[in-house]
Design brief:
five-stranded parallel β-sheet, 7 helices, alpha/beta
Length: about 240
């Protein structure tokens, strides 16, 4: 039986992953990366206890601040739209999981991402819920040590499997927000983080004509159409 260190959030994906790994004969050691609200940590601890999974809670707030929150903010202020999960996975999440694996002599790490890892190469998961892009910065060595038990499943199938297994998190809603911005309000986070309010300005067309006012550049992203607050005969992006 091989030891596996599983990133365990207490949600349906990590819970089903734990069961699938156990059924495959692995000894599962859960790791919760504590970087959000206390309620999220308590949910993960409770889910692990109900499932009989040993869980280690590791505070990664400092690492998250240094490697993710600060670069995320700096990128937004440069007019970019960064994906913090792509930054976090190699610099915080997997670094921590691998450190725990080394400490307990575990050969493998696992997560509930929807992707495939084979022979040190990362492949897409099911088209309806592929998350391989989130892992694109992992090294071949990291991918070699990675198990992705949800690779052959659609999210709907994982939910159905959780129901079938009687898991208490089967109907727990998915978290669609960034872990360090639980309310999803990016602009408010940037204002709190920088201590400065977003500066309003003008929307200007290709001819230099002012066609409306914006509430701060960081509140918008390239290609956005809805929520601009501009009346026009043609669609504006």
């Amino acid at each position: 039986m091989s030891k596996v260190v599983l990133g365990f959030s207490g949600g349906v994906d990590s819970a089903v992953s734990a069961v699938l790994l156990q059924k495959a004969g692995h000894e599962v050691h859960g790791v919760y990366l504590d970087n959000a609200e206390e309620s999220a940590r308590l949910d993960a601890v409770s889910a692990a206890e109900r499932m009989g999974i040993a869980l280690t809670v590791i505070d990664v707030k400092r690492e998250l601040e240094e490697n993710v929150c600060r670069p995320f903010t700096e990128a937004y202020l440069r007019g970019e739209t960064p994906n913090p999960c792509i930054i976090c996975n190699p610099s915080v999440k997997f670094r921590t999981l691998i450190a725990v694996a080394d400490r307990i002599d575990a050969e493998l790490v696992a997560t509930g991402h929807y992707a495939r890892a084979e022979n040190g190469t990362l492949y897409k998961g099911m088209p309806s819920n592929d998350q391989s892009y989130m892992l694109c910065r992992l090294t071949p060595d990291e991918v070699n040590a990675l198990l992705l038990p949800l690779a052959p499943y659609k999210k709907t199938e994982v939910r159905a499997l959780a129901e079938e297994l009687g898991l208490p998190v089967a109907r727990k809603p998915d978290s669609m927000d960034i872990c360090f911005i639980p309310d999803g309000d990016y602009a408010a986070f940037l204002e709190r983080y920088t201590g400065q309010p977003m500066q309003p300005g003008n929307f200007v067309d290709e001819q230099g004509h002012v066609i409306g006012r914006h509430k701060g550049a960081a509140r918008y992203t390239i290609g956005q159409r809805k929520g601009l607050g501009i009346s026009a005969e043609t669609r504006l992006f």
